[in-house]
Every structure is written in C-alpha cells, then in structure tokens.
Design brief:
three-stranded antiparallel sheet, alpha/beta, six-stranded mixed sheet, UDP-N-acetylmuramoyl-L-alanine:D-glutamate ligase, single chain
Amino acid sequence: MIANALTIAGSDSGGGAGIQADIKSMSANGVYAASVVTALTAQNTLGVTAIHDVPPAFVTAQIDAVFADIAIEAVKIGMLSQPEVIFAVADGLRKWRPRHVVLDPVMVATSGAALIADEAVDVLVRELFPLATLVTPNMQEAARLTGGAVAGNDAEMLAQARAILASGARAVLLKGGHSTGPLSRDLLLDGNAETWFEAPRIATKNTHGTGCSLSSAIAANLARGMPLDYAVQSAKHWLTGALRAADMLSVGAGSGPVHHFHEFWKGAAD
C-alpha cells in the first residue's frame, strides 16, 4: 500500500514552489499527495506580484474534507500568511491529530518577496510549533524566529536551533543552504541529539522551491515509516540530485525550479 501525505501551503502559479513543488516532491518520494491551499500567489521565476489569501473557513473545510476520507500519515505545512489561517490550521491539526507534522516556516520567497505578515510570526510559533514533529527553517528564517543575526558558524547555528526547540517544537532542522563554502551543512536537533548533514553545494541558479521540496520529501519519508534522521538524510540525498539535474530544465528567466523527477524522466539521471 502507498502511504498518503498532505501539504497545507500556498499555491505557486509558476509551479516551482508551494503546493505544486510539494505535490511533485511527495510523488517523487513515493507517497500519494493531497493538498489544502492556504493562499494563491501570482508568481513566476522572477518574483511574486500578488497574494490572495484563502478565507480561514474554507481552509478548515479543505482540511476536514481530506481527513474525513483519506488516511493521512504525515502533514507538511508551508505558507501561512495570516494569523486567522494559522489558527484554522492549528485547530484542524488538533482535531484530526496526524502522526507527523513537518512545518516549513516560509517567510520569504527565493526572489526576496515577503510571504508572511509580521503579526503572524508570533502566532505561528505559539500555535503550530508545539504541534510539529519537525520545524525546518533556513538560516534567515531562524534569525527572524530568534531575533538575532544570521548564524555565521556551527556554534551560532546550534544556539539558534536550541532556541527554536525551546519554542515548543520536538525537533528542528536548521538548513545551511544559504551559507557559503563548498558544502551545505544542515543541523538536526532532536531533543539532546545533534546530527549534522553535509551535501556538496551545487552550482546552479535554479534553486526556486528548495525549502518546500526538502520539507515535503521529509514528510513523505516519515509517512513511509522512516525514522526522523533517516527521513532527513534520504530527503537531502534526493534534493541534491534534483539540484544537480536542475539545469536540464528550461523554466523562466529567473531562479528556476529543481528537477523533482530527475530519477524518473528519461535522460535526467545522466
């Protein structure tokens, strides 16, 4: 039997991030993907030009419709731009109690566009962090969540991960993809266990949706029954391949998407 996972996130009309990237990532990592749309964005590889928020009551209706019919093993949460939508999602999770929740605190698009209102950040932490199996901020998001500067070394990454863990999440994956150097280093902090993951930094401008894709792949792996550390390791290995094959795609004039189906499309693996 194939496991089912759910993405709760915003839509990217360009197809490289958000709901679209989540569904591709979950499918590529072996699960059936359902979706709850929290916002519509007018977006392409060059940027976000408009955001239309979905009414909270309709977000609730989508959550209830999915869970009432489909056995969801894991949930990935992405863009939640308004406090009212965050409350709706938190209420839905408390009602349906999925086993795993991967929260990607999406705050800024690859293009630099803000994707969450300032007043929503505190609500996100208070309402959803305690419900999350894993929170997956990048370095800029971690700095915003902790009120500090972007971490410049391993010790500062560890300090910020500990602060986020203290906010209520059960585990934190602090992603180092925005740092410099030949290796991308991510830190998984799970209680007292500290695990570092390294992957080669891929020279490509096509990095749109990497955070969405990684968190969705982790959720898919958790839905398939993998332990958390292995779910992260497997997802990172897959994403490295997707980044390595990204230049095979020709999507837009800006920061294009990663190649979600590099393991399946003919010629992509080469």
